[in-house]
């Protein structure tokens, strides 16, 4: 590949923030995990939109477009889920979402 067609480069700030917040979301529970996931998804969306707007080449812009779609879907999916929802595993490949009567403290 020529140098003017970079496919991989060192991550920029929004991508680093997204990765760090995603790691925090995986090791915490409850409200902290939800907030960290939100920060991760928003940072990923910022990175993706930067790539779409000013990517180095067409491949990077397409990766940004895919990342924007992924982040948007995650953000809309978490917006539709009630705040007191709990995802519990079911018998099979799908998960069942149940709303709890009172949030845990």
Topology:
Elements: H1 13-27, H2 30-54, H3 58-80, E1 85-89, E2 95-99
Antiparallel strand pairs: 1-2
Please sum up the structure shown.
This protein has 105 residues and is mostly helical. 60% of the residues lie in helices and 10% in strands. The chain has one domain.
Would you give an account of this structure?
There is one protein chain. The chain has 105 residues and is mainly alpha-helical. It has one domain. It has helices at 13-27, 30-54, 58-80, and strands spanning 85-89, 95-99. A two-stranded antiparallel sheet has the order 1-2. Helix 1 runs antiparallel to helix 2. The chain is elongated, with a radius of gyration of 17 Å. The termini are far apart.
Number of strands: 2
Radius of gyration: 17 Å
Question: SSE order in H/E notation?
Answer: HHHEE
Total separate domains: 1
Strand percentage lies at: 5-15%
Number of helices: 3
Mass-distribution shape: elongated
Poorly predicted ranges: none
Q: What is the end-to-end distance?
A: 54 Å
Overall residue-averaged pLDDT value = 83
Largest sheet: 2 strands, antiparallel
Side by side, the strands of the main sheet go 1-2
Approximately how much helix is present in the residues?
Answer: 55-70%
Class from secondary-structure proportions: mainly alpha
